[in-house]
Amino acid sequence: MCAGPVIAHELRRGTRVHLILLPSRGLLEFTKLIDFGANDLLTPHVLPAGVSPALWMEFFHQMRSLDPHHIWVSPHAPQEVSSWKIPILFRLLKSLFWSKGRVVGATTERGALALNDAIEIDRTLPYARREWEAYRKAFHGLPEDSQPIAFVPEIMQICNLSSQFDLVIHPGATAASRKWAVENYVKLLQILPSSLRICVVGVPQDIADVKAVMHAGRDIEYRSGSLKDALKTIASTRLLLSMDSGTVHFAGVLKVPVVALFGKTDPAKVVESREGLFPIYRKVVPCQPCGSVECTQSRLFCMEAITAEMVAREVLVRLSQIEKQVP
What we know:
The chain is an alpha/beta fold. It folds into 2 domains: about 5-140, Rossmann fold, CATH 3.40.50; about 155-325, Rossmann fold. About 35% of the residues lie in helices and about 15% in strands. It is built from 12 helices and 11 strands. A 6-stranded parallel sheet has the order 8-7-6-9-10-11, sandwiched between helices. A 3-stranded parallel sheet has the order 3-4-5, with helices on both faces. The chain has a two-stranded parallel ribbon with strand order 1-2. The protein is globular.
C-alpha cells in the first residue's frame, strides 16, 4: 500500500515495473486490487516459501529474464525488523543476471552492506511519506507530494452508496502485540447503543475469537472472506474501528473515517495525520514505542491501557460528527 504511489508514478512514466513480493497470498491478491489502470507494465513475482529447489529454480529462471536498471529495497519495515536477506538476495541476482542494475536502499537496512547505493533516510516518518521521500532522494525528479492511489472501481464505487453499517470492527493485526483483547469488545458493545448496525470483519480465527466471548442477543453481522470482500465491507460503513494494521491505510484510500488503536507503535510514525483518522494511543510504559515483533513484557500493558470506555466515547463522538455532516 505505502509503495503504491511510487509504483504508480513509475508506471505513468512508462517504466516496466517488476514487483517482488514476500510469499503471501494476501499480498499478491492485494496488488491486483489497486487501480494502476489498464497497465501491462506491472508484473508481480512472489518469493518462494521454504527451501524447495524446484520453486527457487523457477524463481531464478524468472529473474534471469529481467534486465533492471534499478533494484529498489523498500524501507517500509522498522529498522529492527528489516530483512537482511532481501538486499543480499538482490545483490546475488545482480551478480548473476543483472549486470547493469544498481541495488538501492537505506543505510539503515540490516543488509545495507549488500547495496550498491545506500541513502540516508528518516525512518521516523510515516510509512507512505517515508517511502516517497526515500525514493525522491534516491531518484531525483519526483514531485514533492505523491498522487493518491485508489482501489479498483468495483470497490471504490461502494463508497458512493448508502452506508450498510454504522460501525465495522476489524480486530485483526499481523502481530498479537497489536491486538486488543477480545474481552474488550464485549464491554464496548455493552456501552454502544443497540440500535447501531455493527459488523465484525476479519480472518476466520479473529471472527471465531470474537464470537466465542460475545453475549447472545446482540445483533451483529460477522463477515470473513477474501481481501476484496473485506474492502467492500469497509467501504460500506460510516465508521471503522481498527487495530494498528493495514486496515488503517485501506480506510484512508476509501475515505472512511477510522478510530485506530495503537499500543506498541506511535501512530505519528505509521500514518500521516489526515481528515477522518482518529488514533487512540497512550504511552504508559518506557518500552513504547517499540519495534519488536513480540512483546517483551509480562502483559500487553500498552494495549491494556486502552479501555472500552475510551473507545466507546471516541466511536460515539465520531458517529455524531458524521451524522451532522449528512445532508
